[in-house]
Amino acid sequence: MNGIHGILCIDKPEGFTSFDVVAKLRGIAKTRKIGHGGTLDPMATGVLPLFLGGATKACDRLPRQDKRYTATFRLGITTDTLDRTGTVLREREVSATLRDVEAAALAFVGKSSQLPPMYSAVQVNGVRLYDLARQGVEVQRTPREIEIHSITFLGGDPDTREYIIDIHCSKGTYVRSLCHDIGEKLGCGATLTALRRTLSCGFSLEHCVTLPEAQALADAGRLRERLLPVEAAFSALPRLELDREQSRLLQNGVRLDAAGLPGAQPGTLAVYGPGAVFLGLAKVQDGRVKVEKLFVREAVQ
Fold first, then answer.
1. How confident is the model at residue 139 (pLDDT cuts 50, 70, 90)?
2. Between 153 and which of 102, 163, 231, 279 could a Cys-Cys bridge form, CB atoms 3.0 to 4.6 Å apart?
3. What's the whole-number average pLDDT of the chain?
4. Residue ranges of the alpha helices (H) in the chain?
């Protein structure tokens, strides 16, 4: 299956790290060149976009970085990892009602600063925080600017003290920390008990296959049929269509006059050549169209 290129969205199973999934797909797709669109904790499941072959060039250019999750958390318990996989540090009485929990969650909608948890992949002086945490070392961390676009309260059970919310948030948001903060706002603490990512990089669960399904497709020689083209990652961008000569010039690094190109609006554009061939990304600046990233190197025929 040499020369495989495109995007494959995997419904990540629980117990796998994102790197585990990448390693598994390297064997399934028979390719070493794979990147992914956003790390998921081993406990989490859901949308993990994988970029194969030449599509890896899209990983650092993705226009949609927002994420969506369905999160379940339990009130009254605090753990060192902020989720159910950790050691219980404290248990407290819970007096919050359904209305109290919903109000506490909605208070976090908007922009704010969030402190990355110690059990996270953030690096401090070249060392992952989770490696330091496992050694019992806690270091000072820098809060990060995040934005919670929306929180929808999906329900809960006062008897089990578990509640479910839908979260639409910016890249870099730690849902474990959010649930912990909701618990602290209620005065009883909380820990994440389940997490499912339902949207990442513009891709949803509808785009996903499971690892067994990917293996079955590969065994049948049909994995390519399930791949999304790399341009699917840029469908949210304005589209610029060029003729053959314009495409050739742009591919050779020539800056085109934006005034004569319909659709050449300021900002980053998804550029297509004759036959709707996706060429790559370009930016309109100072009245000129210049290349940002090419995905097709050969001349358009």
1. low
2. 102
3. 91
4. 18-29, 98-106, 129-134, 175-186, 211-219, 223-226, 244-251
Residue recorded with tokens 């669109």:
37
Q: pTM, whole model, 2 decimals? A: 0.90
Q: Domain locations in the chain?
A: 6-63+202-229, 67-200, 237-294
CATH class of 6-63+202-229: alpha beta
CA-to-CA dists, residue 191 to 75, 124, 183, angstroms: 7, 25, 8
What is the structure's pLDDT at 116?
Answer: 75
Residues paired with residue 256 on neighbouring β-strands, in sequence order: 289
41 catalytic? Reply is yes
Q: What is the pLDDT of residue 1?
A: 45
Report CA dihedral (8, 13, 15, 17) to the nearest 10 degrees.
20
Strand partners, 89: none
Q: Are strands 208-209 and 144-157 parallel, antiparallel or unpaired?
A: unpaired
Higher pLDDT, 163 or 60: 163
Expressed in angstroms, the distance from the first to the final Cα of the chain is 26
Of 11, 20, 41, 157, which one is the catalytic site residue?
41
Superfamily of domain 237-294 in CATH is PUA domain (2.30.130.10)
Strand partners, 167: 69, 151
3-state secondary structure of 214: helix
The single residue listed with the structure tokens 């589209």 is: 239
Give tens-digit pLDDT for 173-215. Answer: 999 999 999 999 999 999 999 999 999 999 999 999 999 999 9
67-200 CATH fold: Pseudouridine synthase (3.30.2350)
